[in-house]
Each structure stands twice: as C-alpha cells, then as structure tokens.
Amino acid sequence: MNTRTVALLSIVLILLPLIPAYLLNFLAFVISSAIGFIIVIYIMISNKTWTDTKNKVVGTYFSGVFATGVVLGEFLELYSATREFAIAGLVFVLPFIVQFILLAKDILPKLVNKDLIYFSNGYLPMLIVIIIGALVGRMLTSFYSLIILYSGTIVVALLVFLYFRK
Hints:
Structural class: mainly alpha
Radius of gyration: 21 Å
Number of helices: 7
Order of helices and strands: HHHHHHH
C-alpha cells in the first residue's frame, strides 16, 4: 500500500465508529463499526498477519487505528447508553487485542534481556518498582497504609537504582 492509501484508510477507520457515536445513534454505531470490523478483518486475512513480524505490525496498526476510533466514539457517548456502546466496543476492539498479543509474542523476547537493565543505568528497574508500588497503592484506601507503602516503595526504588547503577 502506498502512503495515500494508508492515510485514507486510517482516517476512514477512525471516522466510521466516531460519527455515529457523536450523534448518539447506537444502531448506526454498530453498523458502521461492523463495516470497519470487516475492513480490519479483510486487511488481517489479506496480509496473513499471523505469518511474520512485518505483517503482524501492519495488522496491529490498522486494528489499533480502528480500536482508537471505537474508543473515541465511546468517550463521546459516555453520558448516554453506555452499557450497549461498551459491549459493542469491546467486541470491535478484539482484533487489536489479538494482533497485539501476536506481535508482543514475537517482539518481547528480543527486547527484554539482561543488558536492558544495565543499559538504562538503573533507571528502568527503579521505574518498574515505582510503577508496581503505585499500582498496589491504588488498591489501598487508608492514608497511613499509603504513607508506609509509598515511602517504602521510594526507598526500595532508590536501592534498586543504586544496585543496577554502573
């Protein structure tokens, strides 16, 4: 595909679910999203996105663009029939989830290795510890528990930073 075709197809895949959701028309949202879903499935089948990494990237791009349009459409209609739009949106986002998992299965083993931790000079492990502490902190409601958790997370993150620093 040339650049114009990719750009036009990307715009169409974003606008298909976006316009009916803006107009708060559930039936039109489902029909136009089904058309976009069929386009994405056609791209996935015609490119055989399960064969190699380059085709998986193509499938992930187009399904991701369509998923972006679906999610933006859901945000536009948040104050109306949210349950129906959310269920339909979840169904239409499934190709992106599948493509992302297929792509991550190929790319992650090549990216994650011991050199990555030492290459970042300790910042990546520190960031991972802080993110884990923040995720655990979202589940707690007590102020005193949060103080202990966050201060402990910062101390552990600094120790991890100093350990992996060259």
